Amino acid sequence: MEDETAAPAAKIRIKTNPYIPHEVVTEILLRLPVTSLLRFRRVSKAWNATICNDPSFQCTHLRRHRTDDPCLLIAPRIHAIGKNFNGSLSGLYQWEEDHAYSTATALLYPMPVPPFPEFLEAHDLVHCDGLVLVGTRSAAWVLNPVMRRVVELPWGRLGDSTSFSYLEAFGLGRDPHSDAYKVVRFFRPPRVEVLTIGSSDDRCWHETVSQPPWFHVKRRPAAICFKGSLIWTVDQKDRNGQLGFLRFRLDEETFSLIPPPPCWSWDDHEASTLSELREVLCLTTSVGLMNRSLDMWICTDLDLPQWEKCYNILSDWTQPLHPVAMLGNGVLVCRSSGNYLHRCTFQPGKGVTVNHTICMNDLRYDNVDEGPLVEYPSRTATYFDAIPYVPSFVFI
Length: 396
Prior knowledge:
The chain is mainly β. The chain is 11% helix and 38% strand. Strand 19 and strand 20 form a beta hairpin.
């Protein structure tokens, strides 16, 4: 006998998940920041494969988000009293533009680096497309902090040679021809080694065929990666030589000299700082009494370099300011000696004014793996690196 309690066939509803083409899902994922994609990897195996294992997805995502508003990575260098080291990096901390003193700065990556033998051997952090290079005279690492991946680089023959044992500067950049990332080491007397990350011979350095000019380059600030080239500032030790900036093309591995702005002097050169702000090469130098004014020049073409004076930063700060990053809403972050960061905003008439000063010693730092908050007062932290950072899925 027919079951009278059964639902009529017309009323039966079969629930099915709507089908979304993979191309549509991929386009949606490409619009999301890395921090969101790291969570969405757990949604399904297909999503995880697209996000983590598809090189074309990773390249397209990087291209779309390369100009996103960066945050800052802050790396305290710790001084241990009574120990045989000075300047050990404790970790990379992520500082957002709206960060307040009452909010802890999150630990993005605990440094896998052993204590440095000497503080002066630690070079400034170098960055490119979400990768960070940590280098000393005796060791170097390339890491992707958000992906928690790190590669320890081998040591080349120039570093082992007694004749060329002094490592003067590091650089990290992307070769626009091959899309490969290269680490560059500049030795004194001038010789240069290059290592390509991710290539079949990525465990071997090679010396450049083109010899660098007989220049010393500044170790601080670190080399700027701009439009497929690394750029160092010529050191004042070469006062008998030409003023300017040494350019190394990552595709051809050749050298050239970029001239400074017109009427540039050695005093201007010594006080100058190069930085890359929103895909524009910026050169700043302190002017006026008590360093209370900062001229900013810009250059957009390295093949036919021409400097245009664009802004003047006015400040009641008595130490030279060095631009670090251009954040959201036109906020320019500068730093000065004494481990200070300065928020600056653009004003009408091409002026920039400092409106907020932050001491990195006074910030609180959140060590997620250890639980309690950490403070780095002046007696323990000798120096703070601060670099712009845009998370990426660049594989190393």
